[in-house]
Amino acid sequence: MTDQRGDFGAPAPDHGVYGISVAAELSGIAVQSLRLYERYGLVTPARSDGGTRRYSAADLARLRRISELVDAGVNLAGIARILELEDHNATLSAANTDLLSTNRTLRKAAKDGRSSRQDA
């Protein structure tokens, strides 16, 4: 049976463990702002069975990024677009890494296949 923990008993980065007041304190963002960011879809914390927000380490990292953008003078619509593009870029980057790995594997297999045919 697996649990929601990462290494050394720490919660997994995407596991919501912090209530809204703790998340506000850890992020330096007011509770009302956290609610506003959720309303705009900038952050989507998990919910407990009772419906309370539970912020994860990944949510806190995203809140830090939102705070940087707010401090830079970007409005909420701009922040939403920037985060969307950053998320899309991360997805594409991961796919590219997978493709590069597959390409290396296929090139090695092709090279090994040529070598074994030449030896025969």
TrEMBL record:
Molecular function as annotated in GO: DNA binding; DNA-binding transcription factor activity
Keywords: DNA-binding
Source organism of this protein record: Mycobacterium paraffinicum
Domain of life: Bacteria
Record CDD domains: HTH_HspR
Gene3D superfamilies: 1.10.1660.10
Xref: InterPro entries: DNA-bd_dom_put_sf, MerR-type_HTH_dom, MerR_fam
Residue intervals of the HTH merR-type domain: 17-85
PROSITE patterns, per the entry: HTH_MERR_1, HTH_MERR_2
UniProt keyword annotation of DNA-binding present: yes
Name of the protein in its database record: MerR family transcriptional regulator
Tagged with keyword Cell wall biogenesis/degradation: no
